[in-house]
Design brief:
Layout: E1 5-7, H1 11-23, E2 28-33, H2 40-44, E3 47-52, H3 63-72, E4 77-79, H4 89-97, E5 101-102, H5 107-114, H6 116-125, H7 140-150, E6 154-162, E7 165-170, H8 176-191, E8 196-200, E9 206-214, E10 220-232, E11 235-241, H9 248-264, E12 269-277, E13 283-289, H10 296-303, H11 307-315, E14 332-339, E15 341-342, E16 348-349, E17 352-353, E18 356-358, E19 365-369, E20 376-377, E21 384-392, H12 395-408, E22 410-412, H13 418-425, H14 428-432, H15 439-446
This protein binds ligand MV4.
Residues 131, 155, 163-164, 199-202, 205, 207, 231, 234, 274, 276, 286-287, 437 line the site of ligand MV4.
Amino acid sequence: MFKKVLIANRGEIAVRVIRACRELGIPTVAVYSQADAKSLHVRLATDAYCIGPAPSGESYLNIPAIITTAMMTGCDAIHPGYGFMSERADFVDICTQHGIKFIGPSAESMRKMGDKATARRTMIENNVPVTPGTGILNTVEEARAFAQKAGYPIILKATAGGGGKGMRIVRSDDELESNMILCQQEAQKFFGNPGVYAEKFLENPRHIEVQILGDAYGNVIHLGERDCSIQRRHQKLLEEAPSPAIDEKTRQEMGAAAVRAAKAINYEGAGTCEFLLDHDGKWYFMEMNTRVQVEHCVTEMISQVDIVREQILVASGEKLSYAQNDIKLRGHAIECRINAEDPDNGFMPCPGTIEAYLAPGGFGVRVDSHSYAGYKIPPYYDSMIGKLICWGETRNEARRRMYQALKEYVILGIKTTIPFHQDIVEDEVFISGKFNTGFIEDYYKRNGKEF
Ligand code: MV4
């Protein structure tokens, strides 16, 4: 097992990883920016080192500072959490060059999924369904030929993009050329790679993702799916597992496809295959996230598998603790992201000091957070200040427990998304389970509010 683990992250996920390390008896090193000196991960880690000023480019993305801290403190592994360094193949290479184990997939696996056109090709070779689409487009004529075959609307995507970044929907031929040029220019500007490909555009699909775990011996299992359709501008707000839209047969097929995808790239650690489900029940691979995700907790609640613990164990060379047959999903879990944002004002971030704090509790209630009374939320990072996760034997039990827990959750001094989530879990369309990625827009329209 590792001698000591450096956590190259902040906020609730740094706390989550430190807790997993403590349970495994592994000492931890926290790194933090000048804005995070009073953050909870700094207090919970065995040791903590300031690695730079507030802007993440100079701290949480500062590779020399992170590597130097790991070397000087005797860390033999780095856990990247999500965001920041978690999907940087160049960082994985640098860790390896310094004799430090990156807790996650190899740089090679990461690169194969980081390039979305390559990932599509790998999926086709491995019998995983993808939307009708193209490889990298060389000319606008190639894009036009595809659009004529598939029919409008189509979507142009930057191959180096992902998570909704670098995409353009094209609804008619006269918009095609200008959109393709703009998409390529933006791809070059934001990702340093102008490559763009096209897909048939699915209107308001459901966003379904499958959690997988792999080890260094070629074993891969899946832990079922999560439904992440409730999002606004590609920011997820509420996630649940299992998906109300997936039956047992589809779960097995989607799970098997995700396992094939992971095996095709010798995937190690925790990963997620994202699929879109269209209105007639057909589903298609979109992309793979090669990291632990914010919403991993809903899967933990229904599978009783500690995903972060498994990440650490398999990175240290142990075999997966579970075979596919050991995985029995039970009940339903819902996660609400608690953000320091004003839902009545376009979800504008509202950093500031938490004047009073009281988290809910009880059977089936979990809070993953770095918040406490007196904590000052810095304005430099994302606005998520906690996650409330509720389990129930049925979806309705989980939903009702969530409503009560939200009512119990006290956070004073700043605006949060707690009241918004109370309304969502009492919304008739949410209760019905029949919704898609258009839910939030529709919810605002139905309630006569500004989107
Ligand atoms: C799509 C799509 C429809 N058709 N691809 C968004 C996240 C990224 N992983 C892929 N995404 C999408 N890809 C095809 N062929 C719809 C989405 C999508 C979306 C697009 C626009 C606005 C909101 C969205 C929410 C979820 C998914």
